[in-house]
Known about the structure:
Number of helices: 47
Distance between the termini: 58 Å
Structural class: mainly alpha
Radius of gyration: 40 Å
Shape: globular
Helix content: over 70%
Amino acid sequence: MEDLEKAILISFDESGSVESALKLQAVGFIDKMKESPLICTICVERLCFSKLVQVQFWCLQCLHDVIRVRYSSMSLDEKGFVRKSVFSMACFERLEGVDDKNFVRLLEGPPFIKNKLAQVLVTLIYFEYPLIWSSVFVDYIPHLGKGAPVIDMFCRILNALDDELISLDYPRTQDEYAVATRVKDAMRQQCVAQIVRACYDIVSMYRNSDPDLCSSVLDSMRRYISWIDIGLIVNDVFIPLLFELILVNGLPEQLRGAAAGCVLAVVSKRMDPQAKLSLLQSLTISRVFGLVAEDSDSELASKIATLLTGYATELLECSKKLNSEDLKQTSTELLDEVLPSVFFVTQNCEIDNAFSIVQFLLGFVATMKCLSPLTEKQLLHVDQILEVIRTQICYDPIYRDNLDMLDKIGREEEDRMVEFRKDFFVLLRSVGRVAPDVTQMFIRNSLANAVASSSDRNVEEVEAALSLFYAFGESITDEAMKIGNGPLGQLVMMLLSTTFACHSNRLVALVYLETVTRYMKFVQVNDQFLHLVLTAFLDKRGIHHPNINVSRRASYLFMRVVKSLKAKLVPFIENILQNLQDAVAQFTTMSCLSKEHSGSEDGSHIFEAIGILIGMEDVPPEKQSEYLSSLLTPLCQQVEVLLISAKVQNAEDPVAKIANIQQIIMAINALSKGFSERLVTASRPAIGLMFKQTLDVLLQILVAFPKIEPLRTKVTSFIHRMVETLGASVFPYLPKALEQLLAESEPRELVGFLVLINQLICKFNTLVRDILEEIYPAVAGRIFNILPRDPFPSGPESSTEEIRELQELQRTLYTFLHVIATHDLSSVFLSPRSRAYLEATMELLLNTACGHKDILVRKACVQIFIRLIKDWCTSSYGEELLPGFQAYIIQVFATKCCFYSVLDRSFEFRDANTLVLFGEIVLAQKVMYEKFGNEFLVHFVSKDFPAAHCPQDLAEEYCRKLRGADIKAFKSFYQSLIENLRQQQNGSLVFR
Length: 992
C-alpha cells in the first residue's frame, strides 16, 4: 500500500523534480493496479486511512471509472460493498470494522474531494436507482440532522445529479435521456416532497447562523424547480420565505441572490399560459422593484435585474398565447408595471446575459408592429428602449486613450464592443421601423445633448449618438432616404453643420464620416447639402484629420461619395483639387510611408476619387487635359528623377526610393480608374496619349530595378489597368513590357505574368496572336523548367512556401492553356518555336485530365483536348495540321482519359463536380466520332473494351448510342456501362 501511495504521489507531481522515467514507471504501476480484481477494496481502504488528497482523489476517480465502465461485470457482493462504503462516507459515518481513531472523514476534506465523492455516488444512482437502490434519497435525508458537513454534501450530490444526468444544458444520448426520465419519475413519486421540505427547514434554521450553507441549498433547489411539482414551491410557506430572504436588508447578498434565483426558476417554469399568468400575478413581484435602485452595482442588483427581465419575458410570452382579451389586458398591465424597472436595470445594472434583454425587447417591439398609431404609453416605452440602447452602446471613458491610439487594449475593447453592439443595433433597426419619427427625434436629441455634455463624457456620448444615426440608416428605405422629409432632413442638416469639440478623437471622426457616407442618397436629391458634405471630407474632420487611420479611411469614403454624386460635383472640381493638393503631395513623400498603415486603405483612394471626378465626360476637354496633366506630369517627373539617381553609386537609401516609386505607381494606377476606354481612345485621344507617355515612363522601372519584386508587381498591376483603359492602343508597349517582366521572374511573379496574358487574350482574342506566338516559347520554357515532372508530394512536406508557389503556378498554367485553346489561339502551340514544348504540354494535359486530385482542373484539361481536336483535325482525310495527333488522340487520350480514368473507382459518380467532368469526357467521345468516324469507334470498341471484358451486346449498344443524336441518352448509357464493368472486376485491368 505504501508503494501505491508513493506511485500516486509521483504521478501527480508537477514540480518537475521527478525524473520522467520514474514518473512513467509510477503511472504504469498505478494503471496496472486499476486492473486488479481487488481494486474496489483497495480504494475504499485507502479512502478510510489516507490523509493525502492526491491518494483520495485517485481512489475516488478509480471507483468512478470502475463503476462507469465495469458495472455490469461486477459481482453483487462487490456492488454492495462499494454502495455501502460510498454512502457511509457521504453520510459522515465510519465504516464497519474501521478504528474511529484512524478513520479519515472525506467530508472534512477540500471541495474537489467532496465533489468527486458526489460524482461516484451519482454514478451508482445512474445504474441502480430506483430498481436496485430505491431508498438512497430517503435514507440520506435523516442524516441531514448531523449538520453543515452532511447538508453541504447533499447539495453537492444534487448538483452532481443535475450536471451528470438531468440538466438539458449538456448534450445527452438517448440512453441518458431514458435514465434521466426514470430517475426524475421515481424522485417525483418517492422523495421530492421530502427534499423540498428538508431544504425549507434547513434555510429556516440556518439563515442567520450559516447563510453560505443556505445559499448552497437554494442554488441546488433552483436546479430542480423546472421539473418538480410547482405546488411544492408556490405555496403559503416557501414563496413567503423566498421573498423574505430577498427583502431583508441584514442578510448577505449571496443568500438574497440565491433566493431571487429560485423565484426566477419559478417564473421561468413551463406551464399553461393561463396558469402561468395566475402564478405571475400571485407573486406580487413589484415588492422587489425598489431593490435595484439601492445599489445598482451590487451582486444582488444583478440577480434582481435578471429576475425582473425573466418575469417580463414570461409575461410577454403569456400575452402572445392567451386568447381572452381580459387575460391579455391583465398581462399588459403587469408588463406595464414591470417595464420601468426593466429599463432601469438594463441601463444601470450589470446583467448576466445582455442577449436575453435584447431578445425580450425585440419581442416587445414586435408586438407594436401591427399597432397604428401607438398610444402615449407605447411611445414612452419606445423612448425608454432607445435610451437603453444608447446607454448600452456607450464606450467606457476609461478606454478613451487606448481607443484613440488603438493600442492592444484599445483593439481588444473595440473588437468586444463591435460584437456586443450587434444585437442592440438589430433592436434599434426594429424600433426604427415601428416608430421612425420617434427614433429620429431621439437621435437628434441625443446628438444635441452629447455636444453640450461635459468633456469627461463628451467623446463617448457623441460617438454613441452618431453610431445610433449610422445604424438607423439600415432601417430606412431608399425612397424614404431620398425624400428625407421632417426629422430626417433636420438630422442630416445637423450632422453636416455641427462641429464637435471631440472631432479629433479617432472613433468620433470615423463614425462621423461613415454616417455622412451612409446618407448620400439623401444628399443626391438635396443639392443644398453638397458644399457641407465636401467641407466635411476636405477639412480636418476628414482627409486632413491628424490621425492617419482616419485620414485614409476618409480618402476611401470620399471616393465612394464621389462615385455616388459624380456629375453633381463638376462645379466643385477646382475647389476640390485645390483642397487636396497637400494630401496628394504627401502621399508620395517619405513621411507618408509606413508598414503599419499598409493594406486596402493605403491612401491611394484619394487619387481614385480625383480620377472619377476629372474623368467624366461632363468635364470640358481642355480642363480635363489640364487637370490630368497637373497630376501626371509631376508624378512622372518624380519617377524619372528617382530612376536617374538609382544609377548613381552611393546614392540615397535605395529602400526609400523603391517605396517612393511604389507609392507613385499606386497613385497613377488609382487615378486612371476614373477614365473609360471610350473616352481615352475615341472621344478624347489626348488623354490617352498622356497615359501612354506615363506607361512609357513606368516601364523604365523594370529596366532600372529588374529584380525588385514589389516594383515589378506594381508595374504589372498598372499594365493590367492600361489594358482596360487604353484598349488595343496599348499593343506597341506590350512586347517590351512582357519581355522585361518575364526576364527575371520567379514562380510567384510568373503567376502574375500569366494572369496578365490571360487578361490580354480574354479582352482582345485573336488580336494578340502575334504577341502570344512571340512570348509563348519563352513562357513554356521557363515554366516547364521550374515545374517538377513528378506529382507534388503530399503530407507535411507539401506545405512549404516553395511547394505552395509551384502549385499555384501550375494551377495558373492550366488556366493559361485553357484560355489559349478556347479563344481560337491553339495555332500558337504549333508555331515553329513552340513545337519544342508540345510534347511536354500534351503529357502534362493528359496526366492531369486522367488523375489530378482537383476535378475542376481535370475538366479544364479535357475541354482543352476537345478544342484541340476541333481545331487541328479538320476532316477525316487530307493533310493533318499536326502529323500523328489523330493517332495520339485515338490510341492514348481516348484510352487513358475517356476509358481507364473513369473505370477507376476513385472516379466518384455521386460527386457533382465529377459528373460535370464525366459530361466533358462524354462530349469528347462525340467529338472524336464526328472527326474520326469509325477509325475512333473501331479502336475504342475492339481494343479498349475487350481489355475490360466488356460484353459484346454492351459494346454494340455503345456504338448505337454514340452514333445517335441524343447526348443525354449516351451519357446515361456510358455511366451504366462503366458501373457494370466495375462490378465485374475481372480481366487484365486492376480496378481500385
